[in-house]
What we know:
Layout: H1 18-26, H2 33-38, E1 46-47, E2 57-58, E3 69-74, E4 81-89, E5 94-103, H3 108-115, E6 123-125, H4 142-148, E7 152-153, H5 167-179, E8 183-186, H6 190-198, E9 200-202, E10 205-206, H7 212-218, H8 220-228, E11 270-274, E12 282-288, E13 303-307, E14 315-321, H9 354-360, H10 390-396, E15 434-439, E16 442-444, E17 452-462, E18 465-474, E19 487-489, E20 503-510, E21 518-523, E22 529-535, H11 548-551, E23 559-567
Parallel strand pairs: 2-8, 3-6, 5-8, 6-7
Antiparallel strand pairs: 1-9, 3-4, 4-5, 9-10, 11-12, 13-14, 15-17, 16-19, 17-18, 18-23, 19-22, 20-21, 20-23, 21-22
Amino acid sequence: MSRHVTFMTIDDAGHYSPGQRAEIVAAFPEHEREARAKGIPVLGSGRIFPVAEETIACEPFKLPRWWPRIGALDFGWDHPSAAVELAWDTEADVVYVTKAHRASQQTPAMQALALKGWGDWLPFAWPRDGRRETLEGAGVALAKQYAAHGLNMLTSHARFADGSVSVEAGLMEMLDRMQSGRFKVFSTLHAWFEEFRLFHRKNGQVVKLRDDLMAATRYRKLTLAYVSGAGTLPTSTDGIWLIFTRAGDKGADGTGVGDFTGPASSVTDNIVTFAGTTGKAGKDSGVAVGSLVAGPASAAADNIATFNGTTGKLVKDSGVAVASLAPKASPALTGTPTAPTATAGTNSTQIATTAYVDVTFAPKASPAFTGNPTAPTQAAGNNSTRLATTAYVDGSFAPLASPTFTGVPVLTGGGIKFPVTQVPSADPNTQDDYEEGTFTPAYSATGCTFSYTNQNGFYTKVGNVCWFSAELDLATSGNTLAANAISIAGLPFASSPTAPNGMRFVCAWFNSTTSYVTVLANLVAAASALALQAITAASTSNNTAALANGLCHATLGMGLRVCGVYRTA
């Protein structure tokens, strides 16, 4: 006998008008509205966060690089391990949950592999059970196992400034932020919202079931304390200080080796300027704030400022635009400027008026010169309206037919375009091809079918050398696997027939059926497919073909990454 459950919301009750539906929903307490109107369950004695989802959900956006960010972990095995990334808008004091990850029965190595994609620099907070030594880690604490696999773990577990780890205090702080609009979650984090809806109490106690992402998020209070460098949040008057207590920690942008530092001594109220080009050190500029002048409340852009009084401290808008003035050197005059007309034949620095030129010189419009006119030869590279002599042209430009360039030619209007079909050259110093593009890699194995969520390939070919990268992610369904050799087909160019027979590229993989020490992609001569090889233990040979049902997993979403360089035909 089959069963079927149908969910109906108040919006499916067509006999109510939209206004009547809104009136019915508004009559319920806010935290009960989703349960009453949409059928979203409220378990036990009530939700822990009686807040409507739409008040905390926001569309994803690109995070400003200066916002502090940190990760938070909750360890697990049968119940999932979970991790979130949090970003802090320090100006508005709003915390954003921007990433979420949840997985069951995965070792620290696999968890770290998934989380390092968020950024190797990202520090991670972790609960006190991370100090526990486990059989899986052969007596090594969980936090140290994650750190050993490259995750940037904090040196000690998350806790409040007084050393406590109160669950209720963390939950109340989260609720306070939600209700005051200072806590937001990217709307694409469906797993996070799934736990949010079901997070509840029973007999007044928090139900510790499917709360892994909630637990990781609860470390936010301690996270903010870590990022700000203090046990309490800095105020708007204090500014934001990033303070680190161990070697190797980085600044908020994730690229520096420390935080901004000032000089050993300075004069009070002097302006700080950068000391060097690192953006990490400052110096005393020697300019006091009090020596700066004060400008008007408003002014026209690019107008000249003049003093407003005799103090030398106030300026005003003169009403004269810089663009309206002509420089002394090579001025570009407008309007109808006039000057005295010099006597015909005058040879001096006196300005020549139109009357003088009309009598003495040829017109600028289509002049008819006679004799052998000459002009000064400009320096090579001159780019102006000056006359170009034959000597200037001969020394500065290459002929159109078979030009011979010298120095380092620079293209300012674009790049060099090669033919779509390569025209090979036997000259070893001639570059005869360049191409960039994409291709679609795909697994190939006898008796197997594959379903993908990601098939991306990129390549750059210069001459007869091709660099490529490929990434393949299987779907969690739609895969049929057999114990047959597996390869990756679809390389953009076949390898050279004279290339070394057996070029191997190291692969990165996750969620395979079998545990391997190494997975290699083997490219033989005159081939456009990579034969996959896998080693499960130390060996004197690496010629073992990988089998589709060993490397791939039909339901876990197995993924593989490989890149390399090879010589083409």
